[in-house]
Specification:
heterodimer; A: mainly alpha; B: mainly alpha; 9 helices
Chain lengths: 247, 211
Amino acid sequence: MVSHLSHPKPLLRMAEILLPWAAATSFIFMGAGLLWGLILSPADYQQGESVRIMYVHVPASWGALCVYTAMAILSGLAFVTRAPLFHLMAKSIAPIGMAFAFISLGTGAIWGKPTWGTWWVWDARLTSMLLLFILYLGYWMLVSMFEEEERGLSAGAVIALVGWVNVPIIKWSVDWWYTLHQPASVLRFAKPAIHWTMLMPLLCMAMAFALYGLVVAIIRFRTELTKRKVRAFQIRDWIVQQEKEAA
Amino acid sequence: MGNLLTQMYCELKYTSQWALHVLLVFLSLMVAFGVLSSKNPALWQAFLPMLLMGLSYGMTSLSLGHLFRDDWEDGTLEWLMSEGKSLEVYGFAKILAHWMRLGIPLAIIAGVVTGFTSFPLIFGVAITTLTLIFLGAIPSALCLNTKANNSILLPLLILPFGIPMMVVSMAAATDPTVGIYSYLALQGGLFLMSAALSLIACPFALRLALR
């Protein structure tokens, strides 16, 4: 399975088949989720209409965490199998996670103003999301600062892996330091604390975000591969030309 | 062990004076804050642990650009690699020597400034800098091959890793309600974890840079 994934051809074929379906489903889920969340679902009895920001805020936060995990897994696979394609995949999904983290922070600030009365507090969850964003930023800057791209990719992979080990520690430490944010209300061991009329549109939006991420990941990955192909052709042309001149 | 000690001795004896510069910057900042808060001594008392902790973090992360850079530029690293010397021992020696030149003086300054009244603060500065150097050695090794001398990137990469240790040390220095041993256990645990992580990841990163 893994070795199958590490060759570009079958992977690209799979991506070609997947892309239109993922895009269409994402679009449908997004429409349904927005309609349900913004119009049909009830307002919160404490927070009023502003609770609807949740339908973007929460899926984006989940997305940011999932993408980082995926990056760490891909980086680990890249070192274990020595297949450079996994590095490329990790690099192509990094900006998606960064965008999700940014959306999460931005919508969180907008939501925080009417609810808590402030744009930003150094609360545990806010801080850990900010640090996740900084991890993404550091990864991205590190990867783009090398002359040879391959070196940048493997350096970034080390940071992604080490950062992944650190994410739970960061989460724990800031939780323990200070907390104001409401506790998680969907992912907990007891029954979810959120009513199903809000849960369903939320899950709908989460699905839409996940599929949207997949679509962008496929497009970005395809572009990265095409860039490499172009470079390979350029090098081949250059060699042919050198040989002609020598002859 | 002997190898490690030799390496550390060479490191402490033959490298440049940057640690002194970093310490001077630290001292000048402390003097500046002292003068600025002299009209309101309560402010100084309240902010002192945070200043010491925050400034030691800043100074450590700024200094980490030098950790492997000099050896990288003059070819020492390449020589070590070609001689088949252990990069694990090299990295460990480098980290310990760096801490002896930077972390211990910072802790002593912290002690002098507070009049040696707060053991958790002095110990916190010492172990936080050591943990930061262990963790920061990884990005420091990774940045060796970058286009320019990118010491700007390092604080950004170190920040997320350094936060947990700083938070725990800060709590230990300012919160008198919880027993000292629980904090010591937390600090020790975080330190050991970062040391273990760094001793695996740092030689790996050095090999990547030398490949």
